[in-house]
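In response to a reviewer's request, we include the raw inputs and outputs for one of the modeled complexes. The two entities were modeled together in a single run.
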Amino acid sequence: MTETKFKRMKDLPSTHLLGTGTPMCAGCGGLEALQEVYDVLGPKTVFVNAAGCMTLLSVYPFTPFRGSWLYTAMASAPAGAQGVRDALDILLEQKRMKHEEDLDVVVLTGDGAAYGMGLSATSGAIERDLDFLYLCYDNEGYGNTGQQFSGATPHAARTATSKGPRGFTGYKKDLFSIWAAHKPAYVATVIGSEPLDLVRKIEKVRQLKGPRLIIALAPCPPGWDFDPRESADIGKLAVKTGVWPLKEYVDGKVVHTKIPRSRLPVEEYLKIQGRFAHLFAPERNEELLQEIQSRVDNYWVGVQE
Amino acid sequence: MTRKLLTGNGAAAWGARLAKVDYVPAFPITPQTEIIETIAAWIDAGEMPGRTVTLESEHSMITAAGAAAATGVRVFTATSSQGLLYGMEMVYTVAGWRAPFVMTNVSRGLASPITLEPDHNDIMAARDSGFLQIHCSTCQEVLDSVLMAYRMAEDPRVRLPVIVNLDGFYLSFTREPVEIPDAEAVASFLPPYAPESTRFRASAPSSQAVAVLGGAPYSYFRYESHLAALNAVTVYDETAEAFAKVFGRRHEAVDAYRCDDAEIVLVMIGSFATKAKQAVDQLREAGHAVGLMRPRLLRPLPAEQLQQILAGKKAVAVIDQNISMGMGGVVHSELASVLYGKPGAPPVLASFIGGLGGRDISPEEFYEIAAVTRKAADDGVTPPPRLLYTREEFREIKKLQAIAHAERQELESGQ
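The model returned the following structure tokens for the whole complex.
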């Protein structure tokens, strides 16, 4: 692996490739991550999109992308990537297309597709060793339909379909491990509020072949119930409290790329989001808060850089 | 040109091979699997260029097919029944991408109850998708129709995917002598695919299949697809003409057999129409003026040709190998809408449902259909729809139920 060209924050691109004026919500953590990803990938890409918030990026006849785009359906974006990649390979093989015309194929889905309906198609694409990049913007619920809980929703979060006093009774699915169990070329977690970590990972995956999958935690002002201006801070807290471990799976090993030295209490992250307000008022739910904290603590036991 | 005994599945695979398809996304399902096995074997042996990939579902398979077509290569795929339904979201979706490709569907009845044998409810579910449909009744037609389908699908006036339909078992596994045309002849009929702007290239970024907001842009694109499908009536006729010139075989959009002087016309699609054809010959020998009309092109529906063939007939009997619960036969209602209010429309349009799940339609049943229809013509009263089923079949079912019931009781009583 060559030395990163992103050593400091000032090495990050100062202008963005992705156009402005998209219908994404103010403070969208998914768009923040996508901006950073796109700056590294550039326009020689075709984004194969699954139904989700970001389907609204390209609404006829406008697009913020300088490169290409194909909307598929909720479940089968990885299969769409398969079709595009295979077709490009056939054209290259048969010399019907110049190499300069080739494109990186990027799947773009939300957590609803990635953790649930599209998991089988993703598994298939990895098993077929498809040369593609997969970017999941994970806002921990079916955001585009008003934040019902999904397989990515964290324990105790209030969603449109878990409004009881304990919030969502299930647990966030460990998609990173599910993907890594397939032994693809690369898996990583990222977050837009840690742009250096993010761009270094994207820089790395550009040099790899095969299935490369990225989950970007996407703080979501309307879905998580916070002011859009807090978005970056909430992202930072997700990392500092250890709720969102930044890591990568490469060459069969999981490496944490940013270990919070002294983890802040999870409460710091929870209390500023309306979706966890019921843990603090009308009275503190000590038991649930303890449970959440100890799950995070357990995760970090034995984790080394 | 060589002549070979081929199954309908083999003929479909040969159609794809001769069309020089680049890409074959696949997923196995009975009774279609032989098609993808045959193609995979050819590709593995280096006898056929191109690439095949097995997806993890038909939903993904059809997505990959559409995506590859949208990238600018020639794509073939095949499915059947439950598979077609599993992929149905994408059947509708990729049709709207206006990226042409060809899919064969090997018709098989739908669950429930689950079965392997043929009828047309699967393909009827794709009726309104935007895919065009060609229905075959012989193995030769299957091969020829695949070639014709590519030319029609890729025509700039059409640019829609096409389903070539053949019946499971009756065609898929039945060997018939099939003429396999020479590659050079095929090349003169079917030039390489010219994707034009429907492709992804670094130098020419494009956004395909994007969302719309509001009914006006949505309607715009839906109407465009509809008008393109209507164009396919003319394009089909041109294609049939060109095909006849090169290969000497003519496949009309609507096959009219002994219809010219017929008073009564039977209407069927697919391989069971060959049974009707035989019955027509028998009825003719017995002195009855009966004909058979078999639409090959079902989407677009060649309305004018159907009207012309049936104009002035005393009565028409539509035998549907499908059933729309609570309504009846789909082809019957389509024909009613085509004929209603048209000059010379037959006064009697009778409906019969038969051949569900591969249930045979016997010659005697065809004679009965003709007799009922003739009587209706004489009386001037359209008979109520008939569900073909014999007393013997009903008795057999009741007998099986009684045996199963008795055995269960025996088991429970511990004897």
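As requested, we also summarize the result in words. The mean pLDDT of chain A is 96. The longest strand of chain A covers residues 104-110.
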